[in-house]
Amino acid sequence: MGRSEGCVEGASGAGGANLSGTADTIGWDDFMRVALCAGTVQKVEPFPEARRPAWKVWVDFGPHGVKKTSAQIRSLYAPEDLVGRQIVGVINFAPKQVGPFMSEFLLTGFHTDEGVVITTVERRVPDGTRMA
Questions:
Q1: 47 close to 101: Cβ distance less than 8 angstroms
Q2: 12-49 tens-digit pLDDT
Q3: What is 56-104 written as a DSSP string?
Q4: How many Å apart are CA 77 and CA 72, to the nearest integer?
Q5: Are the C-beta atoms of residues 107 and 57 closer than 8 Å to each other?
Q6: Helix, strand or coil for residue 45?
Q7: For residue 30, what is the DSSP state?
Q8: C-alpha atoms less than 13 angstroms from C-alpha of 61 in its C-beta half-sphere
Q9: Which sign, positive or negative, has the C-alpha torsion 62, 74, 11, 16?
């Protein structure tokens, strides 16, 4: 399966890849393997050891527990903008060591020229609810 960063002609992600109608088609089973779940941000701390400006973020995913991640979202979000906010995360990636910090999920978002805009929930749902 190919990896594309953007979905709009001219949009690019961290890898600089453009998607202009050439995305690989996936099946329902492929989509169902990705656990995209809603969770509420509990805590945000600085991550001074990160190579690029980042926050350490802890999110409550309800029955899946509290998970932490490193997120390069400092250009658009202060800690007080994030705590209490419901976000969307991929919670079934293998843990990844980021410097001295173990990242346990992927905070989803959209790359823009100003920074990453996080994926949020339009209306509150129970923490841990899976995207359909």
A1: yes
A2: 444 444 455 668 999 999 999 999 999 999 999 999 99
A3: EEEEE-GGG-EEEEEE--TTT--HHHHTT-EEEEE--SPPEEETTEEE-
A4: 10
A5: yes
A6: strand
A7: H
A8: 24
A9: negative
